[in-house]
Amino acid sequence: MSGPRVNSFFLGNSSGVNFSLILSPRDEETGKWQIANCSGSKRAGDWNLDVTPGMDTSKVTVSLARTLELCLPNATECCPSPLCRVETLQVLACRGSVMLAQLLIQAEIFANSSFTGNVSENATIIPNQAFKPLGSCPCNLTAGACDVRCCCDLECTPDLQQLFSGSCFTGVFGGDVNPPFDQLCSSQSTECTPEWFPFLCVQSSLDNTPFLGYFYHGSTSTPKVPSFKIPLQTSPGKPFTGYREGDPIITEEDEYFTVPQRSMAGQCVGNAPVAYLHNLDVKCLTSLESYKEGLPHDVRINTGTADFIQQNVVYKTITDRGKFITESESLHAAEVLCQNVTFAEHYKLIWKDKNIEQVNVTVFLGSLCDGEILTQRFTVEFLSLKSTNGEEPFENPGYQAGKPVRAANINASDPLGSLNIWQPAGRGLCASATYRPVLFGVDSYSGCILEVNINEDCSHLRGNVTEKLNALIQATHIGKRDNSSYSDLNDWVEIIRLDPVSSNVSTGGLKGICPDIPANLNIRIIFAKVGAVQGIPQQHILAVQISYSTVLWQFQCGLGCRNTLSFLPITASVQFIEVPAQPPIPVTRYQKIYAEFDCNQNDVCWPQLLYPLTRFYTGEPYSQCLAKGLLLAFLVLLAAITSNPWFSKLWSR
Fold this sequence. Notes:
Part of the tectonic-like complex (also named B9 complex). By secondary structure, the chain is mainly beta. The chain has helices spanning 158-161, 458-470, 589-595, 622-642, 645-652; strands spanning 5-11, 18-23, 43-44, 47-52, 57-64, 83-95, 98-110, 261-262, 268-269, 280-287, 301-302, 308-309, 312-317, 325-328, 338-352, 355-369, 372-384, 407-408, 418-423, 434-437, 444-453, 473-474, 477-479, 492-497, 513-533, 536-554, 565-578.
């Protein structure tokens, strides 16, 4: 035991059982245990024994009946040293003269560290090291002992100092806390002495030395260690103020509402939080071995006003598994293990202002077997409570960075269009590449590889490449705003298409060479900031242009020219160009002339040719500058006169 009290239990009926306590049961001469004697009492020295009987268990308590404070001068009944008590105790349980049980206790108790005596008011004064060195012997690191090679350590005896007197620490660390510095005029150091020394030096006392403050003495502050807990958006007594765009959605357990999303490395992360008003459409590959369930659908969502709503979940069964199963290994039917898993989850969150009004979830379930690769799909769509006919009139009608650009086929029966770029997979071939939408404000560059035969007809190759590129743009118009209505033609801008330019280069019937292949698609989107809604910029698209860049394709012959297939990379780039919302005011002729003399717009400033004599110079009063300028002009004039030949002739006469 290490404290003044210890508890134990006696199991069994304690009726008629006598408990006793023996101090130091070991014989000091022989070192053997003393023969147990049942005739002892419940007190031994400063120790007491208390027994609390019970039905089948009795509590046995051994306690020390004295103080554990360190002794003050001329004090008794205290601990003379920090290790206060080291004793061995033995507790016996006897019925008559028969010993039923015994307990051996080894006590090693230290004195209390708390001090309750009178505190001396002679406090140690730490000097301000900005004026006086904090320590006269910095190498004295060990208290009560001699530090080797520390010749300023007063705890080192002369005999010990003789052992290392020739290798003592030098400099500030060795105790020379006020050494003469190099800039001092009396310094005799010749190392790294500049050429101007001692013409320019410092004459100062050693009490004012640059080594003061060598050990930094500054204000300290508690470091703010980042917490791994989610910062709650609520505080006691303060209501929840609602979500803002981009804020993570919180659940009832003060955790993130998560949906699997792709990371920057391209892998799917299962615990990625859903951001408010940010739509998602993610596809993740998984197998039966690596499949993991996501967030349970019975978790309630924080609406934004410290209220919680339940998710409305609808379960459906997948009938066509071919749209989700991308690979399948050939296994015997008896060995196949299948499990019912989630194929897709579609979340629709109805919002109003800064709050979430409703959460609807559609879960598609299907059977996934061992050896199959499943392409899971997760979508999150935010719909305004005011939306009608599937259209969503946002509070801010302009585009926000990172949201898909809206496209439409105005003259078609189905006006829904798309503006995409490639998202290659696998070997990067165009045949297996998928699409991803063009995001507003995000310049993108993607491509894929097209396999071309050596006998490919050039006209057919141009048509094939053009078809691949045109498949990215299934639209005739682009929405000016994020809430452009299909029924209003003024909400859309027509896509300007520039056909590829032909150079009329003839190949002379050679195989494997085709000029003017439109291999690069350039999408330029011009937009402007036309205002702000609640401090958020309102951005509108003004024009969209599509052009093609042509290349000369030539068959690349491999080793031995045995391969009849070559590769043609085709690319698509998206560039967003910001322009002023209104054209700038034309510059007048006066402004053009004045701009030539504007020192803020030109590298050459003619008005400041005689800078010290102008009003631009503020280093001295203008009257002094003018007087110095006139004196300088007089000296120049005098030099010009005296250097003239006729002046020397006149002077000689």
